Input
Amino acid sequence: MKTLGFPKSHRLLKPSDYSKVFDDVTLKVPHRNFLILATPNQLGHARIGLIFSKKNLRLAVQRNRIKRQVRETFRHQQNLPDLDIVVLGRQGLNHLDNSAIQQALDDLWRRVKKKYKQAQAQSEYSDAKSRGTG
Output
């Protein structure tokens, strides 16, 4: 069973970690209130970084509430692929209650897993085709 801690090894800590994701986006999962950008890593586990601006969430209390919820849902995810993930907040988040945010995030994590599997299948297909075996 996966431990439900949230160690530093599961966070994007340095600006270079964020830059790697922004420069090499391989997965993009949009939502009305969130945007998830991700790129594969070689660490054997997923890492997450959060970006919530004052422009979209005026009060620090609002930003902190959303960040806590994103971290908590990330922490409970089972079988997340080995990705570096950046979660960006969009306008309108401050109008959502905690249960709506929870539902949106659960849906987003499900979509991240699904898109990653589709991308893996697509790359395997294109590799097989380029080798002439497909």
Summary: The mean pLDDT is 89. The radius of gyration is 16 Å. The chain is about 45% helix and 15% strand.
